[in-house]
Each structure stands twice: as C-alpha cells, then as structure tokens.
Amino acid sequence: MTREVRTVVFDTDLLLEAYQFEGIMQKFPNHFHDYYVIGFIEQGKRHLVCNNEEYILNSGDMIVFNPHDPHACEQVDGRTLDYRCINVQPEVMREYAREITGQAYLPRFTSPVLYQSELVGSLHELHQMILEEQSDFCKEELLLLLLDQLLRDYSDAEPPVSTQDVTVEIRRICDYIEAHYMESISLNELADLTEMSKYHLLRLFTRQKGISPYRYLETIRINQAKRLLEQGLLPIEVAAQTGFSDQSHFTNFFKKLIGLTPKQYRRIFNHDSELKRITTNIV
Asked: Where is the HTH araC/xylS-type domain (predicted)?
C-alpha cells in the first residue's frame, strides 16, 4: 500500500511555514489563502485551476500564489503527489520586499505557474534546510536571493494600487462575510445587500472573485481558524468561534483545504522548541 507522509514545519528564524506532502492523492477544492504560497511539484501530474485559468503541472514546475488567489487542484495521472512549499504571511513578505527593494509593499506575482523553473533547485535547497532545522545564515541568504529573483522577474514592477478589480456590490458582500463569518449567513441576506437576484449575485461574485460566495465564507472561516489554533485554542473551541455547525464539519473541511486536521495543525504551534514540526504517516 502507498505510504502517505505529511510534514509541516514552522521556522522561527524565517517566520514561515514549510509543507512537504509525499504520496498523497488528496483533491483540494476551490479556496484561497491569506498568505503567499511558493512551491513545486517533486513527483506527480496535477490539474490546477487558479484565477479561472487551467494548468497542467508536472515534476519541476513551480507555483506562486498571491494572497486571495482562488485555486483548486487534483491528480490527473492516477499516481500520488510529492509536493513542497513555503507559506509566507503578508506582513513577513512586506518586510522581505523592503529588505530587497527598499520599499515595504505587498508584491503581486503575475503568473501562478512557472514551468520547469530554474528556481526550483534553490527552493528545494531552502526547504530541505528548514526541514533539517539548520540555523546558519545560508538559509536566510537562499530565501532572500529566491525572493529577489521572483520580485524582479515575476511580479508587478510597481507596488499595486489595488490587487483586485471588483465592483462596489461585490466588495460590500466580501466585507459583510468577513465581518459576520461567525454567524449563519443566508443567500437572501447577501442578495438584499446588493439588491440583486440570488442567481445574478452568484454569477457576478464567482466571476469577479473566482470563487463562490459560500466557498469564500468557508475559506474566511478556515483562515481565522488557523490563527486561533496557532494561539493554542482547542479545535472544539475554534469550531464554535468560526461559525461551523459542528466539530466534525469543521475537521473535515479544514483537512480538505489545509491537508491536516485541526488537531494536527495546532500541534505545530503548541510546544517550546525553536523550530516547530509535525509529521503524519498513513499507510
């Protein structure tokens, strides 16, 4: 049988997460993160949809997601996936951008896929150093040089005025969901906010945001749940504070989007070692 390994490390030197998935077949539904994701395919062939564009990923291809880029992916060749990535929070990326360019801003990377990128080797070396808990400055040097090339070659030349072109009505809905995610929200409420029909609202929201209103709501809930788990709250407490109907629903959806259960994710941030890690094995 296939051996599935999921390893997640939080590096307190670089202030980022490193994920390594080996031997997985999991399909990830359409969602987004509130942080940057920079990763690559080690083995496997993956169908990716990002910002309503379709891509086929193979070994050696690199992915770069901006915060709030909607994306979904699944295996297409019947084989398992080996994948590595680093997750960089916006406030951390802002400081790295300042260090590299002299301007503290949030870059907007222009393409989610870099086919057969020469940067994969550098990212692999950096990722391995994080997993091996190395602490010398070579690790930071690798990250800065990697980000420097990504910023120069694959991001907007100037800090963007706005990262998303949406209408006032759709922005109003997003603001409402972000303010009321802990509550039970109905489609009627959202339609009343915009004076649109429910069908027109669904189509317009999905076209502009690349994700449906309900999936947007659940993604906001999951992103907030991550923050609460990082603070040490128990999964049952987090489920109650983020609007999920019960802990089972919360656990299932969390794993669909993050690849770990809430309990597993909480453990990364729940001990005193300088470099925090969780590894799960499934045979």
From this structure: 171-268
Domains, the chain, in order of start with CATH, read 4-154 (2.60.120.10), 168-268 (1.10.10.60)
Residue 258's identity, in one-letter code, is I
Q: Is 243 helix (H, G, I), strand (E, B) or coil?
A: coil
Residue written as tokens 């770990």? 260
Identify the CA nearest to 6 among candidates 282, 225, 283, 273: 282
Q: How confident is the model at residue 272, as a pLDDT?
A: 41
pTM of the full predicted structure?
0.84
Using a CB cutoff of 8 Å and minimum separation of 24, what contacts does 197-202 make? 201/173
CB 14: neighbour CB atoms within 10 A? 20
- Average pLDDT on 124-147 reads 94
Long-range pairs, 123-126, Cβ under 8 A, ≥24: 123/38, 123/39, 123/40, 123/62, 123/84, 123/86, 124/40, 124/84, 126/86
Residue 69 burial (CB count, 10 A) = 21
Q: Which two tokens stand for residue 73?
A: 């992916």
The total of other beta-carbon atoms located within 10 Å of residue 247's CB is 16
pLDDT of 166-202, one tens digit each? 799 999 999 999 999 999 999 999 999 998 999 999 9
**pLDDT at 233 > cutoff 90:** yes
Give the rounded percent of residues in the chain with a pLDDT score beyond 70: 91
Residue type, 107: P
Averaged over 230-253, what is the pLDDT?
92
Residue type, 141: E
